[in-house]
Amino acid sequence: MNINKKSLLSFLILILLFISCKKEKKEEIVVEEKKPMNILFIAVDDLRPELNFYGAHHIQSPNLDKLAKESLVFNRAYCNIPVCGASRASLLTGIRPTRHRFLNYSTRADVDAAHVTSLPKLLKENGYTTISNGKIYHKNNDDSLAWDNRWFPKGNIRNYKLEKNIIENGSANLAMGGASSHEMAEVDDSAYFDGEIAQKGIEDLKMLKNKNQPFFLALGFMKPHLPFNAPKKYWDLYNRNDIELPESYVRPKSTPKQAFHNYGELRNYGNIPKKGDLPKDLAKELIHGYYACVSYVDAQIGLVLDELKRLELEDDTIVILWGDHGWNLGDHKLWSKHVTFETALRTPMIIKVPGKTKGQKTDAIVEYIDIYPSLTELVGIVTPNKVEGQSFVPILEGYKPEKDWAVSKFKDAVTLIKGDLFYTEWTKDDGIAYARMLFDHKTDPLELDNLAEKPEYQETVNQLAKDLRIKWGKDFLK
Questions:
Q1: Residue, of 301 and 7, whose pLDDT is higher
Q2: Is residue 112 a part of any domain in this protein?
Q3: Are 153 and 193 in contact (CB under 8 A)?
Q4: What is the number of structural domains in the chain?
Q5: pLDDT reported for residue 173
Q6: Distant-in-sequence, close-in-space partners of 390: CB < 8 Å, separation ≥ 6
Q7: Which domain holds residue 366?
Q8: From CA 29, how far away is CA 388, in angstroms rounded?
């Protein structure tokens, strides 16, 4: 009888253990896997790294400053092409420009890089909701299959509000009614495109909050692109009497003539002379307008970031902010982009990764094709083999980067950025240089003394020429 009781007891214990194990396994099965991080992808047109967190203290941008304190700030980020359409197509496909690929503002990624899966397309294929608001690609319908939704504000692209400018500009795509203080309107922030883009982004965040899948929300803000349209209150933040022309407001004779242009983008506007240097008062007015537009777009970005926090999404969302290229504000007596001076190539770029960033800064050299593989690594997606960029995630982890160079191109000019050296060659299809430019930023940060033709630098030039041809990409001359 005792044996039977013991056997029965053992049997009951085995049954209880079996039930317990089954219950544990069942509980393990129903535990939901944490969804990948969201990505808030903020592009700003024509934004220079002339901001407080880059050491400049005359532009009021409190929201960008706050984001920088929560991010990794790249002191040396460079676009691969200093023109909007080409820069964006290269960044979003992760591949380099060549002699015949990614050439100008009207570039389309789905034409020049049809063989590559773009970043938004890859994310969409991996379960992300992908939304493009405002100017992400230059052409709103570019790479259309990559997006669940695309939206752009309605109206004339130059977005004038003052009646005089609307009449003079008509429906033309190129504005002829004044570039700067002629458009100082007493209007609300939402009157201009960037205000609409911010509000659309806020509404999308509310919608995405309730979706059970990660999102890639891309917001492309228009300012500080010309014309300098911003509500009057942002102009009023600055006293024009305090604005000075840049220290580099000169064209040195040692610099090749190929390095300069007639800033045709600006010459399209009615109050800009068709040739020659700008009058100093007009130059200061343009700088004033640029500052006002940066403060305006800063306020709109702040609204979106505040909503991200209010919706309790910021701990689950990577935020990356970048300008599509630099912009000349009188540097070398130039305006706009379209050159390979550092003022057109160096860009603002910051990334906030929850749990990893807290206001760090890095002097590592990164280029825009590096953004694609970095974001895919951060969200755990395999990067396609065709992507030519190199992930900067090791920098986030505190490691020294393997790469210390970048290559940028505009038309015939190709620039190798390596350490403190900026080396540019102008070449034709045969790859042979017909003009050269070399600056050492350690001794000449304003790029006023071209070293390329000086006898004592010929060995350095020859080595940089070899490096450039190795690093500009295997398909460059095709």
A1: 301
A2: yes
A3: yes
A4: 1
A5: 46
A6: 370, 373, 402, 403
A7: 38-400
A8: 39
Domain of 312: which CATH number?
Answer: 3.40.720.10
- Residue located via tokens 């350690």: 442
Q: Please give the Cα distance from 456 to 75 (Å, whole number).
A: 30
Residue 472 lies in a domain: no
Find, among 433, 415, 411, 432, the residue nearest to 424 by Cα: 415
- DSSP letter at 402? S
Residue 310 domain-assigned (yes or no): yes
Only one residue has tokens 């009188």, namely 330
Is there a contact between 382 and 372 (Cβ–Cβ < 8 Å)?
no
Half-sphere CA count of 120, side-chain side, radius 13 A:
29
Residue 454 within any structural domain of the chain: no
Locate 317 and state its tokens.
Answer: 């969302």
**Amino acid at position 46, single letter:** D
Among 21, 58, 79, 84, the active-site one is: 84
Q: Which tens digit of pLDDT belongs to each residue from 22-77?
A: 554 444 444 456 789 999 999 999 999 999 999 999 999 999 999 999 999 999 99
**Residue 374 in contact with residue 459, Cβ under 8 Å?**
no
Q: Is 118 helix (H, G, I), strand (E, B) or coil?
A: coil
| Residue 162 φ then ψ, to 5° | -75, 135
Residue pair 257/313 in contact by the 8 Å Cβ criterion: no
Report pLDDT for 175.
45
Query: Catalytic pick from 58, 115, 138, 332?
Result: 138
pTM metric for this prediction: 0.91
For this structure, is 325 an active site residue? no
Q: Active-site residue 138, yes or no?
A: yes
Contact 231, 192 (CB under 8 A): yes
Residue 94: both structure tokens together: 């992760």
Read off the tokens for 216. Answer: 């890639």
